[in-house]
Amino acid sequence: NWQKINREPICFGARGNQYGAFNIPKSGRIKTMKLIHKSGSIECNSAYGASYWGCINPRYYGNMLMTIITNDNKESVLPPVGELEALQPEEHSCGIKKHFYSLDGTSHTSPELVYRDLSNQLSVLRNQELQIWYGQDWIDCSEEGNNGNTCVDVFVWYA
Q1: What digits encode the pLDDT tens for the residues 80-130?
Q2: CA-based Rg of the chain, rounded to a whole angstrom?
Q3: Residue 46 has what DSSP assignment?
Q4: 19, 32, 93, 143: which has the fewest C-beta neighbours closer than 10 Å?
Q5: E strand intervals along the chain
Q6: Which among 10, 3, 8, 27 is positioned nearest to 149, based on CA atoms?
Q7: Residue 126: is it exposed, middle or buried by C-beta count within 10 angstroms (0-12/13-18/19+)?
């Protein structure tokens, strides 16, 4: 069952290494996580409007998600790095850097972002820090037109 793990909303921004940090309350194995939107929004380009979880620039096929949970070494844990996608170098300056993904039934303005169950559950320790990043900020690419921040509640499903 879902367990909320934050007291105050966790906020993350779209540029300048504005990740949102939180700590795991107990050791165990995580099957998946979800984020529930509380406030705010992010823009990857003011011409395309606001999003909770991603970027609606047509280069990203109009509905790609860029909200990534990492460990404290900035390594993607949700979604797993193998599920992340990259644009073609000729399509965008971010080129081959993987930083976005899609989830069936989830749009960039869905009230909840529920990650797929991990095939290899994530082992965590009590007080371990995890971070929420916006994809372009995470890879330090194409951030200059980004703005805003999103605040969320974080839920964990222990195996």
Answers
A1: 999 998 887 766 677 688 999 999 999 999 999 999 999 999 999 999 999
A2: 15
A3: T
A4: 93
A5: 2-4, 10-13, 20-23, 28-43, 54-55, 64-65, 67-71, 76-78, 112-114, 122-124, 129-134, 147-158
A6: 10
A7: exposed
